[in-house]
Amino acid sequence: MVQKKLDNSYYLADDVVALAKDLVGKELHVKTDLGHRSGIIVETEAYSYLERGCHAFDNKLTARTEPLFMTGGIAYVYLCYGIHHLFNIVTNIEDKAEAVLIRAIQPNLGFDPEELKPSSRITSGPGKLSKALGIGLNHNKISLTEDTIWLTEPVGNSMDVVASKRIGIDYAGEDANLLWRFTAKNSPWVSKKM
DNA sequence: ATTAAGATGCGCT
DNA sequence: GCGCATCTTAATA
After folding, report:
1. What CA–CA distance (Å, rounded) separates A16 from A98?
2. Residue A124 · residue A1 · CB < 8 Å
3. What's the CA–C1' distance between A3 and C5, in Å?
4. Is the CB of A78 under 7 A from strand C?
């Protein structure tokens, strides 16, 4: 069975919220020292320069947010709380800073049997999934059309997706109430907090 | 130069 | 369920 890599034009859509929803159910592949690992995306969040939750709100360009302003289809990895690597997919065209944060996946290829149990919670959280897949700062800005990190269409049929409020961005004021978080319905792999 | 705060996760109760 | 570790970033709190 051949899994087709998503074309780069997929990431250039102007509607980051619709894209975040569509990404739930896609399969994420990563090749690192840990080998080739993959998982089904079950939780995402949308971020846009139009709202305060985003690092690049009001087109704030810094050394850290630079990748967000680049053409869609690249990875944006940064360190949060000095400990956790958070993996985002940059979307939209150049200078329109938008991204989708991958918050949780369901392990598929390259994991130990123990880790494939939902109770392991090995990938249920943005920091944990990056660690489990071996994603680090060295993956920042790499293109998703290369054979390091890429997405494929899901093998099975589409999943039911539920919208909810984003997590951990109370400082964003009104924008914190946006229903820009998308989770796979009934999946045991989504991060628990609501 | 200094420091407050953060798109979190862990360990303990 | 709650508190804290831990360190980079960006504002100067």
Report:
1. 7
2. no
3. 42
4. yes
Percent with pLDDT over 70 in chain A:
97
pTM: 0.94
* Amino acid whose CA is nearest the C1' of C8: A82
Is the pLDDT score of A159 beyond 90? Answer: no
Q: What does the pLDDT read at residue A27? A: 95
pLDDT value, residue A2: 66
Q: Does nucleic acid strand C have an atom less than 7 angstroms from the CB of A5?
A: no
- Per residue in A30-59, pLDDT (tens digit) is 999 899 999 999 999 999 999 999 999 999
Looking at CATH, the fold of the domain delimited by A8-184 is given as 3-methyladenine DNA Glycosylase; Chain A (3.10.300)
A79 CB closer than 7 A to any strand C atom: yes
Sorted by sequence, the CB contacts under 8 Å of residue A38 that are 6+ apart come out as A27, A28, A29, A30, A108, A109, A110
A119 CB and strand C closer than 7 A = no
Task: From the CA of A95 to the C1' of B12: give the distance in Å.
Answer: 46
Burial, A164: exposed, middle or buried (Cβ in 10 Å; 0-12, 13-18, 19+)?
middle
Which carries the bigger pLDDT value, residue A62 or residue A170?
A62
Token pair in block for residue A149: 């990190």
Residues A182, A43: contact at Cβ < 8 Å?
Answer: yes
